[in-house]
Amino acid sequence: MKTKNNELKINIINDNKSLTGLQLASLIVNVFNVFVNIKNEDRHYNDDLRHVKLQKIMWFSYLDCLKETDIALVNEDFQAWKYGPVLMTVFQKYKEYKSKLFTTEIENINNDFKDEGIYISKKQLQIIIHNCVKYKNISSMELSDLSHDDFWKQKYTNGEGTYMNLKDVRKYYINAK
Fold this sequence. Notes:
Number of strands: 5
Structural class: mainly alpha
Number of helices: 7
């Protein structure tokens, strides 16, 4: 996926593998950048990608990949926060952009991966793109509400920042179904 000032190289591989939170954030921002360029500044869509929305799309993509591939999409644990699950590495790196629009113009969004690119399976990439399309017209607060299921509530009652580790996520969403 190309951007004006940055280029993100996506390498499709056969096996599913875990990404870092920052790699996943970069992929989602690039997918949204394509949406923005396609719609030619037609702003009647609520496709603004801001921090809360980015975090929720990462969460829903993580869950869907786990359900469909049995591999964790990211190699980090989410934490339960007020507005839903959060990857702290992404929050820490981009916290100054809290309410600002995320685009590939954000300083260094792709720079960490520019040389080697991101390695991801076709299935994982399809899930990420599907979730970007599925949730692009849903507001950040609506996505936050969607992420407030019983699992999140259980973790959040233990205190903000409680880890939602893979073992517990798998037990709640995969094994219990």
